[in-house]
Amino acid sequence: MNIKNTLVILIASIFMISCNETKKEEKTAQKKASKYVEEHHSYAKPNEAAAKHLSLNIDVNFDTKVISGTASYEIENNKASQIILDTKYLVIDKVEADGKPTKFELGQADELLGQPLKIAINKDTKKITVHYKTTDKTEALQWLTPQQTADKKQPFLFTQGEAILTRTWIPIQDSPQIRISYDATVRVPKELMAVMSAENPKEKTANGEYHFKMRQKISPYLLALAVGDIAYKPVSDRAGVYAEKSVVDAAQEEFSETEKMIVAAENLYGKYAWDQYDIIVLPPSFPFGGMENPRLTFATPTLIAGDKSLTSVIAHELAHSWSGNLVTNATWDDFWLNEGFTVYFENRIMEALYGKERADMLGLIARQDLDEEVAGFKDAPENTHLKLNLKGRNPDDGMTSIAYDKGFMFLKTLEKTVGREKFDVFLKSYFQSHAFSTMTTERFVEYLNKNLLEKHNISFNTNEWIYNAGVPSNAFEIKSDKFENVKQTIKNILKTNKVDKNVAKDWTTQEWVYFIRNFPEDITPKQMAIIDNAFDLTNTTNSHKAMVWYEQSVLHNYHGNNVDSKIEEFLVRVGRRWYVSTIYKAFVKADKVDDALKIYKKARANYHSVTANTIDAMLGYKK
Fold first, then answer.
1. Does the annotation count 254 as an active-site position?
2. Cβ burial 410-439 (10 Å sphere, 16+ → b, else e)
3. Under CATH, to which class is 322-467 assigned?
4. Domain covering 486-619, topology
């Protein structure tokens, strides 16, 4: 072969190698660029440019009820010309890219999604800083007057970001799949303490300035802030409670078994990954039983019953440290991956600590909730799918018993089909192999098939559970002898119109709830009075018992024992959405909307926007 031909072949070979390397690089870049899935509820385009770390520097002003400051982001930049953040009801003063002013534009406002903040960057931009402030329309924040707190001496502020409200107090890529670490400097009045979903102080500072770090990457809806006259008390080396001074001792006692719950959870599905697990008891207007903000669960004071009977909510929020916080739904259509897994995990924690009977009672109540929810969606059966399509809808629409309790029943049925030992190995591996990442329903099904069903040659109707309406016929049936005794007690009372008080002296909250919820449709006000006179349910201090008793009182036209004023007092004082919506729904069902509106007009100012929006729609309330 002559030198000329050899040279030609060599050049051609080099060219082919170069082309192959280029194709490999392009494939790698393409794979890297498409790691985020498309979703309905964020303007962000993270495959072009995505936030990696947030540095928040803000002032909290109780006089103006405004948070102002800067949100700075380290970004992953795929040679983009812009990065898009989500905002809603925020004022954007200026924006910088790598320390220099840059152009920005707020897009058209959408009632649900807010406005995209389009920030000009170049292909080498590594950091952006947004100077901003909140407004009086900010939905995530609830500013409380001293009178609305437990101690009634100092004001209070808390945030609620789930599902897409973080964008109303921080300009951010408000998608659960865009996980970020963060640090924060927060300045508040020196009389108050600030805490966040991060490493937290145990005492007030002298000047009201607080510094926070969250080194693990979390989804934006888990960014949380609370500011108030609060104190801290430990329950173990890695767990404790924050609350107002008049509440903190009771909270410490109520949640004294938190460390046992953590140990039980770790024994099931692996080491707790967030270092510290604290709980802050917020004022009564907090809209949820609990919110699983990492390192700092936000909790309603309605959990403090004095007998630890409602602490399954803490087991639930703790379980989120694995299912939700560690492995997170990639989009809100996949919400069941957060909540169904968590209800299942909660049930296993309760079984480990308090026995199978109590866990079964909780499971039966969940099944009753699920059946009622499915019946309520008879005209919209697509809402009973686990995998939803919430395009154009508020993701709160998917926060129903379907995600929680149908998801739980799916996993419980799966456990019974494959065997608990195999299922526990699978779940532990699932959490560990996907830690600090997000998950779609489709990828979960693929993982389930490969690592559990096909591996053990097991057939299961997964697609029917996830993509079809209603509850499949193979749903595992949970039984409880204690609940059978409760049902017999109801029959005996209604048959004789007499009550043996001793029959209920050792009942748990779950038995009481089951008792009250299973009154027959034809129970009379006279029979309700007999039961109330025996057990004084109208004056119960257990919030869950109160909710179901007040619901039944409205539905069955019972007015004895001053129950009407108790219902009004409860609805004005408590802002927990599940509780108040259950009672207002009873007013609607009983054709007493005018009565409900009279109470709601007094109560609405005490509700967080999450609760108010739900009740506004339910009652047709217009400001």
1. no
2. bbbbbbebbeeeebeebbeebbeebeeebb
3. mainly alpha
4. 1.25.40
